[in-house]
Amino acid sequence: MCVCRDAYLQHISAFTYMQDWNMKPDSRHNRENQRIAFAGLLVLLLPIFSPNLFNPLARAFPSLFSEWNAPKPRHLRLLQGALRYQISDRRQSDLWSPLANQGWKPCVLPKNIPSLPKKSQGYIQVFLDGGLNQQRMGICDAVAVAKILNATLLIPQLEVNPVWQDLSSFSEIFDVDHFINALNDEVSIVKELPSKYSWSTREYYATGIRATRIKTAPVHASANWYLENVLPMLQSYGIAAIAPFSHRLAFDNLPSDIQHLRCKVNFQALVFVPHIRLLGEALINGLRNPSKSQVIWQGRVLNAQFTDEELRNQGRCPLTPEEIGLLLAALGFTNNTRLYLASHKVYGGEARISTLRKLFPLMEDKKSLTTAEERSKVEEKASLLAAVDYYVSMHSDIFISASPGNMHNAMLGYRAYKNLKTIRPNMALLGKLFLNNSMECPEFQQAVQDGHKSRQGQIRLRKEKQSIYTYPARDCMCQA
Questions:
Q1: What single string gives the DSSP state of each residue in 366-390?
Q2: Which SS3 state, helix, strand or coil, does residue 315 take?
Q3: Do 429 and 447 touch, CB atoms closer than 8 A?
Q4: CA 476 to CA 232: how far, in whole Å?
Q5: DSSP-derived 3-state class of residue 75
Q6: Averaged pLDDT in 10-residue chunks for the chain of 480 residues
Q7: CA distance 52 to 65
Q8: Which one of 3, 12, 170, 466 has the lowest number of neighbouring Cβ atoms within 10 Å?
Q9: Close Cβ partners of 466 (under 8 Å, ≥ 6 residues apart)
Q10: Dihedral of CA 347/350/352/354: which sign?
Q11: Helix (H/G/I), strand (E/B), else coil: 154
């Protein structure tokens, strides 16, 4: 904002200076300079008077244009109170203490693993779209489908994300050898198709209707659907390609060995490549060493501008950076807590997180914790950057997300599986609290703490139709 304001003042000064020279010779040259100065001033003022005109540019350069319309604090009274909060030692101890044993433990192996048949029915290909977390779920489901069909799975192909425009392949994100070896007792997996099927590529299926492609797999299809519709194709052609393949396997009414297999893929077989793990460890060490293990993940906010009070009242809006800061302060986190921020670009620039930084000045990100050389293998690759954030989230002392979504759900599942503290914001409660402009700080603090006593990582059993990857008990866990 300061840069823009300075530029605005410079143009005003130049325009005034040229006005003083209007009576001197060479007035044509002066009039031309006036027009140039006026044009410059008009360009600078247009974003103020016609903001819609600049929306495409704002989307293309969020960190630049966000400075024009950075939001002012909406909850000034609560913010001022949060800066004065006094947190008791007992509250601090309770907040940072690990979760007690809840009587559940990881349990991904069935008692009797069916032996791998000597002969495969054919090859299964899947093409996975979406972001990293959606692709992870698709990989788990693809392994399960291969098991159901007694087929050989080709390493899944990751589609180019239309938003991220990331070309990263499976092998650039996940350790392929570990993936194959961890599952070799249950499913046959190959890196490449035999030469007789080399024609079966994404480009081949993009150019026309092909007999070996399944386009009609329903969302949450049953095991029987695959046996009835895909197995005959395998038996006829030796290969079947399924695209799209996202949420294409049901969460219910599957054999226990298939459920256990999905758990095994998600929690054991899918491991990031070494350089992602090394960068993640560097970030974790940089966070933990200065602060004696006080690390908290701060989740992404996709959009900080909401005006629909009804949606907020229902808890359906993500928290703004200001609101996540107020939530953390009310829960008892002090200003010496170190926060890890996934991405400034998501927020739209430094100006949009200034209130959050005021409450928590020890806020870090990838650039503040690592060198350019350490980041060189993941820079400008959205999937790899997301994988690094995923790794840090897996190992943070506390995880909290400002916006429930795929990343939030994936972390809920993983951290429940590992019995790690994960605070689930009570969005419905917070929506009502932030709409109450008359609420005083002590009342807000107490309401937040009362509303989150049972939302800090307590095991929740999966209900019908819920994701096995978000709620791992009972399918992936058993009672100790």
A1: HHHHS-HHHHTTTTT-HHHHHHHHH
A2: coil
A3: yes
A4: 31
A5: coil
A6: 25 30 48 50 42 48 52 87 89 91 88 78 95 94 97 95 82 98 96 97 94 94 97 97 94 94 97 97 88 49 46 68 93 92 63 88 89 92 92 92 84 95 93 92 96 94 96 93
A7: 12
A8: 3
A9: 251
A10: positive
A11: strand
Give dist(CA 220, CA 215) in Å, integer: 14
Residue type for position 87? I
- Report the predicted TM-score, pTM, of the whole model to 2 decimal places: 0.81
Beta-strand pair 295-298/477-479: unpaired
Cα 474 to Cα 104, 132, 370, 459, 471: the distances in Å are: 9, 25, 39, 10, 8
Q: 56-85 burial by CB neighbour count: b if 16+ within 10 A, else e? A: eebeeebeebbbbbbbebebeebbebbeeb
Cβ neighbours of residue 300 closer than 8 Å, sequence gap 6 or more: 342, 343, 346, 401, 402, 403, 405, 407
Question: E-assigned strands of 197-260?
Answer: 213-214, 239-242
Longest CA–CA separation in the chain, Å: 99
Which residues have a Cβ under 8 Å from the Cβ of 425 and sit 6 or more positions away?
Answer: 319, 327, 400, 401, 402, 404, 452, 455
Distance separating alpha carbons of residues 459 and 457, to the nearest angstrom? 6
Where b means 16+ CB within 10 Å and e means fewer, 234-260 reads: beebbbbbbbbbbbbbbbeebeebbbb
Provide the residue count of the chain: 480
Place of tokens 């150019």: 207
3-state secondary structure of 41: helix
**Burial of 100 (C-beta count, 10 Å sphere; 0-12/13-18/19+):** exposed
Token code pair at residue 104: 């559940």
Q: Which helix (H) or strand (E) holds 96?
A: helix 89-96
